[in-house]
Design brief:
Elements: E1 2-7, H1 15-29, E2 33-38, H2 52-56, H3 65-73, E3 77-85, E4 88-89, H4 91-105, E5 115-122, H5 127-140, E6 153-155, H6 166-189
Parallel strand pairs: 1-2, 1-3, 3-5, 5-6
Antiparallel strand pairs: 3-4
Helix pairs in contact: 1-6, 4-5
C-alpha cells in the first residue's frame, strides 16, 4: 500500500513541499507507505494532443512526467499539492493532471479506484477555486476523495509560514490520515 504525494511547487523547500512532507508523515503513521514527488527543477509541459498515450500507454512528451505516472500507476493513492498563483492552481500542476488523466483514460484506466485529493496553498486567496479546479481531475478519473474537517487549504507566503496555520495543517494531516485509512480498508476488502 502506497500513496504518492505531488508537491507542485517550483520551490523544493517551500510551503507546498513542507505540507506534502507533513501529509506523508501522517500517512506513514497510519501504516501506509508514502513518497513525495517534487516538481522543483522540472519543466512540465502542456498536453499537445498527440494521442501517443492512446497507442503506447505513456505520454509522448519527455519531461519526466512519465516517471511520475509510473509511480502513480503502481500506487494506491494520490495527493496533489499546489501553490496558488493569481487565484488558481499553478499552471504546470494542471498541465500535469491533464496529461496524467489522459494517459490513464486512453490506456488502462490506472486511476480508477485510487484514493486521494487536492491540497491548495496560498498567501491570501484562491484556495477554494484551486481545490475545485484540481478536484475535477480526481472525479472524472473515477477516483475516491475522502473528506476532512475543513477544506484542504493552508495560508502562507514565505517558506515555513504555512506551517503556522494550525487549522490548515491539522486539516491536511487529517485528510492524509483519511486517505491512508481508506487505502487500508480498500486493500483489506480486495
Amino acid at each position: 500500500m502506497k500513496v504518492i504525494l505531488i508537491s507542485g511547487s517550483p520551490n523544493a523547500n517551500g510551503n507546498t513541499a513542507q505540507l506534502m512532507d507533513l501529509a506523508a508523515s501522517a500517512i506513514r503513521e497510519s501504516g501506509v507507505d508514502a513518497e513525495v514527488v517534487s516538481f522543483a527543477g522540472k519543466k512540465i509541459e502542456a498536453c499537445i494532443a498527440c494521442r501517443h498515450c492512446s497507442k503506447h500507454g505513456e505520454c509522448g512528451l519527455k519531461d519526466g512526467l512519465n516517471e511520475i505516472i509510473d509511480k502513480i500507476r503502481h500506487a494506491d493513492g494520490l495527493i496533489v499539492g499546489a501553490p496558488v498563483y493569481f487565484g488558481t492552481a499553478r499552471g504546470d500542476v494542471m498541465c500535469a493532471l491533464q496529461r496524467i488523466g489522459s494517459v490513464s483514460r486512453n490506456s488502462d484506466n490506472f486511476l480508477t479506484g485510487k484514493v486521494g485529493g487536492p491540497v491548495a496553498v496560498a498567501r491570501r486567496g484562491g484556495q477554494t477555486l484551486s481545490l475545485q479546479e484540481m478536484l475535477m481531475f480526481f472525479l472524472i478519473n473515477d477516483m475516491i476523495v475522502p473528506g476532512s474537517t475543513y477544506w484542504n487549504m493552508v495560508f502562507g507566503r514565505t517558506p515555513g509560514e504555512a506551517l503556522e496555520d494550525e487549522e490548515g495543517v491539522a486539516t491536511v494531516k487529517h485528510f492524509a490520515s483519511n486517505v491512508a485509512n481508506l487505502v487500508k480498508r480498500l486493500s483489506a476488502s480486495a
